[in-house]
TrEMBL record:
Annotated organism of origin: Micromonospora deserti
Alphabetical keyword list: 2Fe-2S, Iron, Iron-sulfur, Metal-binding
An example molecular function term from Gene Ontology annotations: metal ion binding
InterPro entries for this protein: RibonucZ/Hydroxyglut_hydro, Rieske_2Fe-2S, Rieske_2Fe-2S_sf, SCP2_Rv3818
PANTHER family documented for this protein: N-ACYL-PHOSPHATIDYLETHANOLAMINE-HYDROLYZING PHOSPHOLIPASE D
Residue ranges constituting the Rieske domain according to the UniProt record: 461-524
Database matches in Gene3D superfamilies: Ribonuclease Z/Hydroxyacylglutathione hydrolase-like, Rieske [2Fe-2S] iron-sulphur domain
Pfam families per the UniProt record, alphabetical: Rieske, SCP2_Rv3818
Protein name per Swiss-Prot or TrEMBL: (2Fe-2S)-binding protein
Transmembrane segments: none
Gene Ontology CC annotations of this record: cytoplasm
Source domain of life: Bacteria
Length: 524
């Protein structure tokens, strides 16, 4: 099996029974804020895109690059389609010209022509990617590969049960806006960023230990930020709180926990995999490349400046009455929302900075009141500040996912009262009837599902499944004193009260191990 690195989470997998191109991303994403690093735009994409199969893990725009898919990927390719709850991915791919689809049953091995075997695990929580994420397992001639990209399954046992894995590709770096955009003192941002960076690595080590593959490939990050306004987000400034460490940092941190089997893929790197070895060749020396990272970034910034400026010139739509259009689009969804609206529990304010850089229009999405209106000088749970032109563009294009556009762009600042609230972001990811109905149904089902099984962690008896996204706490739960941390997403709980310290809601059931169990409680 040959794996060619094609940048970020993208790779081409070649076997004697066929080739698979995964997640090709080249064009800037999220309002021209994210670019692949190292630069992959100069690869021979005409050749790389001439494949038998296409796999796109999910609809995040650093995985689903519509312009690139349309221009460079063969429409003769069969799309390996995850079993997502909505038809959005298939619909978008059909619009790009793809006509052949293999709708893979979830977590079932499918044998393709020539003995090539694949299995796709689809994650379907409203918080998994933009309504869904997935991982791809591939086997041919005894060689097995897991492309986990940036999916976060509760465990990897489904893949491990299929046989020993030889190559494990997974995310290790940040792909979020927290804590950089929050209006906090710099010392607090650095502290929170360091915590997040450490949690990212802890989660990665846990996945690696779960699968115990022969070779580990750090992929799916980090992006680079080439706009001068976002340049400080690149991990080249000695900031220990930067959440975007690169592959060279992964190798260094992995070595600290005993890791010796890490393999870095640059765009154009080729790894030849067998059941007993991995031989890798690179277009340039890897250590030397990352030692000169700042130089490479500066050169790339100069080449891409025109692209960024062209994107910025397309954002303004002064003909749009933002308040009127937000009311038209969002109020019907607020009326239908039960769980998300209740979860947000208060008004959310958008401060829109005008073209002059000074004037501000403040608009409130009032979740309890089920309306969008002008700000009335009241307290709000969340406040976002961004350029009016960005929201104009979202409304002009009919964007249904403001998370997979505005928020991931990091082109905003935020403030909040109290804890993180996942329902705020879940709602703004679901600005369509289809998405909203799915999310409401998912939360309804999970609220009504009782998690009765308990486990013992240290001095505490707790429910086995994390209240957040049902991670198995026997694998991801760490107890320190009276606090439990679920390492899958870093959520923390106060065990004495059961209160979630990370977000509103999501109370955990817990008691001290030496306390008597309540009548009728089931112990695992």
């Amino acid at each position: 099996m040959r794996v060619t690195g094609t940048g970020h989470a993208s790779m081409r997998i070649d076997t004697a029974a066929g080739s698979i191109l995964c997640d090709p991303w080249v064009n800037p994403a999220y309002f021209a804020s994210w670019f692949p690093f190292p630069d992959n735009s100069l690869l021979d994409w005409e050749t790389l895109g001439d494949v038998d199969y296409l796999y796109v893990s999910h609809l995040h725009r650093d995985h689903f690059d519509a312009a690139h898919l349309k221009r460079f990927v063969s429409k003769k390719a069969t799309v390996l389609l995850p079993a997502f709850p909505t038809s959005e991915m298939e619909d978008e791919l059909r619009e790009l010209g793809f006509t052949k689809f293999l709708k893979a049953p979830n977590e079932e091995v499918v044998e393709l022509d020539g003995g090539l075997k694949v299995m796709i695990q689809a994650l379907t929580s409203p918080t998994d990617g933009p309504i869904g994420d997935s991982s791809l397992w591939v086997e041919h001639d005894g060689v097995r590969l897991l492309n986990q990209n940036d999916a976060r399954p509760t465990d990897l046992s489904t893949f491990a049960e299929l046989g020993h894995v030889h190559a494990h590709m997974l995310q290790f770096s940040g792909a979020i806006w927290y804590p950089m955009v929050y209006e906090l003192p710099q010392a607090a941002k650095t502290a929170f960023g360091k915590q997040k960076r450490d949690r990212q690595f802890d989660r990665t080590w846990r996945y690696i230990d779960d699968l115990k593959a022969d070779h580990v490939f750090p992929i799916a990050g980090p992006p680079c930020f080439l706009d001068d306004e976002l340049w400080q987000l690149n991990d080249i400034h000695g900031d220990e709180g930067n959440i975007f460490p690169d592959q060279s940092v992964f190798q260094r941190e992995y070595a600290k926990v005993g890791g010796t089997n890490g393999v870095v893929l640059l765009p154009g790197s080729v790894a030849e995999l067998t059941t007993g070895a991995c031989e890798t060749s690179h277009p340039v020396p890897v250590k030397e490349f990352f030692a000169n990272k700042a130089v490479h970034l500066a050169e790339m910034r100069d080449r891409k400046r025109g692209v960024i400026e062209a994107e910025k010139a397309s954002w303004r739509h002064p003909e749009i009455d933002v308040l009127k259009e937000m009311k038209r689009r969002i109020e019907p969804l607020l009326e239908e929302s039960i769980y998300l609206a209740k979860g947000v529990g208060g008004p959310v304010r958008f401060d829109l900075v005008g073209y002059d850089g000074e004037s501000v229009e403040s608009i409130v999405v009032d979740f309890p009141g089920k309306q969008v209106r002008s700000y009335a000088d009241e307290k709000v749970r969340y406040r976002f500040r961004t350029e009016r032109a960005l929201v104009e563009h979202l409304l002009h294009t009919g964007e249904v996912d403001w998370v997979n556009s505005l928020f991931l762009s990091c082109r905003f600042s935020a403030a909040r009262i109290g804890q993180y609230n996942e329902f705020v972001y879940a709602f703004f990811k679901c600005l369509s009837e289809e998405r909203l109905q799915y999310a409401e149904g998912w939360y309804d089902e999970h609220e009504r599902t009782s998690d009765a099984e308990d486990i013992t962690l240290g001095d505490w008896v707790v429910q086995r499944r994390c209240p957040h996204l049902k991670a198995d706490l026997t694998r991801f739960g760490i107890v320190e004193g009276d606090q439990l941390t679920c390492q899958l997403h870093g959520w923390r709980f106060d065990l004495a009260s059961g209160r979630c310290l990370t977000s509103v809601g999501h109370k955990i059931r817990a008691r001290r191990a030496d306390a008597q169990a309540p009548a009728g409680e089931i112990l695992g």
